[in-house]
């Protein structure tokens, strides 16, 4: 929030810049920015629902520099999507009565609408980040460990399964939610380290930075989905806090020392995740876990039909894990061949 004092102080500089700013503003100050996204033919996977694509309509965010404060506030309020008006700036269920931030910077979140004209309600991801996973992926594929490092990676992951099974038993909803808090770490750590490497060596990454960061984001969306189904208790939150502190640092060091080992570990973790979600599906089929309607965030993120259920969600999440498995085993194989990741184009958009 910008204070009145700050606004006054900046107003002289803003006034001087306003003339230049106008050169970039081709519409009147009261225009609203609207983005529309149109369906296009699906590129694989379930073709019942088409993926989103950027449509040609768009328009701009009018500068607020020349507006009075009251008018700026009114415009900011007008440009909030309905869910934000009612639930706060979080865009869905996270907010309270948070008011719009009045700014003279010209940053004004545009409205995004779906093809049917309804407002896109999520601020944590946008229609062009939603996708349909390839459900025909081989779930049983396994990298047989032959080298010492591979066997070490495999045994490490298998040994982690034992305490996990004891702690969670057959509470797969809770188990999924907790494990996703860990699963979202390796992609971020690997992407961050490759990012720094790219900067200090003045070289391209081959797309691997984005691929790994996309994986981390995808895992985080798994978490955002499962926390709608299984609400974490205080001691589970405390466990996540502790495990994250340890795992982040261990993986960070591990990736620095041996990226091929680190990626292999993640490849095997993903194989375990596929197994866990398969068990989850069995419990749903047996009726031991209620097959509740899919959370709204999952319907929009994976472009699921509106009447989808938890079972549908678990199936698409499992398909995601299979893709992560392939990406990480592939990355490890590249290192095993004595090459760097940037030498082999990353499987961007592989899901
Ligand atoms: Fe996941
Ligand atoms: Fe994963």
TrEMBL record:
Homodimer; disulfide-linked. GO terms for biological process: alternative respiration. Its EC number is 1.10.3.11. This is Ubiquinol oxidase. It is a multi-pass membrane protein. GO terms for molecular function: alternative oxidase activity; metal ion binding; superoxide-generating NADPH oxidase activity; ubiquinol:oxygen oxidoreductase activity. Its main location: mitochondrion. CDD domains: AOX. It is found in: Mitochondrion inner membrane. One of its GO terms (cellular component) is mitochondrial inner membrane. Its cofactor is Fe cation. Residues 63-95 are annotated as: Disordered. Keywords: Electron transport, Iron, Membrane, Metal-binding, Mitochondrion, Mitochondrion inner membrane, Oxidoreductase, Respiratory chain, Transit peptide, Transmembrane, Transmembrane helix, Transport. It catalyses: 2 a ubiquinol + O2 = 2 a ubiquinone + 2 H2O. It comes from the Eukaryota. Residues 70-83 have a biased composition (Basic and acidic residues). Belongs to the alternative oxidase family. Pfam families: AOX. InterPro entries: AOX, AOX_sf. Binds 2 iron ions per subunit.
